[in-house]
Every structure is written in structure tokens, then in C-alpha cells.
Design a protein that fits this description.
alpha+beta, about 30% strand, 4-stranded antiparallel beta sheet
Length: about 70
């Protein structure tokens, strides 16, 4: 994450528990990616912005639940 000018999604793979980082171009893109990862069962730990702002796991999960469209 060091030196990144983008928003970084920090997440763990549901099958192996390995931690990954996904570099996204904007806050909204990072939130969209986080919701996609959660939808398929991965764990999203945080999103870190270029200025060091951190969106924590609970906030991300709340955001993604709120934006889910009912079937």
C-alpha cells in the first residue's frame, strides 16, 4: 500500500485465508469492489485512501448491506 495514490481494498480470500490488496481508482470504485468481494464470500478488512483515510470492516459491511437490492 505504500506510495499508492489510489484507494486500496484489503481483503482475505474465503478459501485460503490469504490477504490481498486491490488497487482502485476512486473511493466509489473501492466500495463497489468491496461489495463484490463480500457478495462472493470473501472478507473485506478495510479500504485505505490515498490520504491515509481508512474505512473499517464494519462500515464497509454496513454500506454494502444498505445498498443491496432485494430480489
Amino acid at each position: 500500500m505504500s506510495g499508492s495514490l489510489n484507494w486500496v481494498v484489503v481483503w482475505s480470500d474465503v478459501h485460503y485465508g490469504q490477504e490481498f490488496e486491490s488497487d482502485e481508482g476512486s473511493r466509489q470504485a473501492a466500495l463497489d469492489e468491496a461489495c463484490d468481494l463480500l457478495r462472493v464470500g470473501h472478507t473485506v478488512k478495510s479500504i485505505v485512501g490515498p490520504d491515509g483515510m481508512t474505512i473499517r470492516q464494519a462500515e464497509i459491511e454496513r454500506y454494502c448491506r444498505a445498498r443491496q437490492v432485494p430480489p
